[in-house]
Amino acid sequence: MKNLLLKRSIALFVCLTLIISLCNGNIVKANTVNDNSLIGSATIFNEDIVNDPEVALIDSIAKEYYNYFKDNNIEEEIYTIATDISSGKEISGLPNVTTNSISPFSSVFSDGVLDYSYYVKEVTGQTFTLSQIGIQLAALGTKLNLGAALPFLEFLALLAGGIILTLTIAILYSAIAVGVNDLILTWYQYSSVNLTAAKQNTMAIVAQQKNGAKYWRAYLANYGGLGGIAISDPITYSQASELVKLDMSTVNVFAFNYSDAAYLATYAYGFGFTNPEAHRDNGKILNMQHVHAYITQGKIHGKCHIFFAVPVVA
Questions:
Q1: Of 192, 210, 228, which residue sits at a domain end?
Q2: Is 98 a residue whose pLDDT tops 80?
């Protein structure tokens, strides 16, 4: 259990450092989209958090509560139910779904860990139980009209002052951000600054995506000695291609996802691209996966990094 908590501490530090790096000034982050649907997600969280069993367990609990709300037609009561959480009132009539959801994770968690969410406590200082957070996520999913509970990582990103991770949700959130933020503030009164930053950054991403942005100017960084990149202004495909052809390691490109990065690398010179890699030796755990464009037929690659958000198996 100590190893699990240490792993979580390191993972959370990495994610919060990356949130800071992606939310300073005009630095933003976005996720993939195509012309026909809003799909895919880019995560500001590192893989340890994404794969943490707590995340899956909370999402499972939230799903059960959301289905209960829908099946019993109590959508109009959700705001009252959710706000009762912050006042410590006993919520009668709701099932205890934690027991149903925990069985796949019983070998991971021990007594005491399930009393509250580790990540929410670390980000906000508050100790809501997993069931309470599940109700919050179900309420927010209903408020946003998602057709499902709000995913836990989306919520954690907001609480930390980051951005919405999935573009479909980002668009809905931007449309009614004030109402959703007001609901969140009934639970987390001290998160107003973070929520303001999250709203501004998320709305910037949505606006840029609606204008067709797929690529951003990027620079190497070294946040706390852990590496990373700084993502700046959105650029066109032609501008991105020109940056690749500058062939400099200090001027780079950030893409939505691997396919966008690979497309850019392939057609910059016409010779293809390297396998995805991330230089994470020497403690540079914030360094992101990227590809390089081959600049000759002899498979010599250029210096420009074409970073992308969603990790792939190299």
A1: 210
A2: no
Alpha carbon of 251 to those of 16, 214, 230, 231, 246: distances in Å? 25, 17, 11, 11, 8
Same domain, 189 and 246: no
Query: Which residue, 242, 177, 240, 227, is CA-closest to 204?
Result: 177
| 100 and 240 belong to one structural domain | no
Q: Which of 74-78, 183-187, 193-197, 208-212 has the lowest mean pLDDT?
A: 74-78
Q: Where are the beta strands (DSSP E) in the chain?
A: 215-220, 229-235, 252-255, 290-291, 306-308
How many domains does the chain fold into? 2
What are the beta bridge partners of residue 255? 215, 308
- Specify whether 10 is located in the same domain as 149: yes
Give yes or no: residues 169 and 296 share one domain.
no
What gap in Å lies between CA 170 and CA 159, rounded to an integer? 15
- Summarised one tens digit per residue, pLDDT across range 203-257 is 876 787 788 888 888 888 776 566 777 767 889 999 999 999 999 999 999 886 7
Residue 313: inside a domain: no
Contact of 287 with 279, CB cutoff 8 Å: yes
pTM exceeds cut of 0.85: no
Taking a C-beta distance cutoff of 8 angstroms, is the pair 31, 24 a contact? no
- Give the residues across from 53 on adjacent strands: none
Q: Give the sheet arrangement for strand 290-291, strand by strand.
A: 229-235, 215-220, 252-255, 306-308, 290-291
Give tens-digit pLDDT for 36-76: 222 233 445 666 677 788 888 889 889 988 988 888 877 66
Q: What percent of the chain has pLDDT over 70?
A: 67
Query: Does residue 301 share a domain with residue 183?
Result: no
**Host domain of residue 89:** 2-210
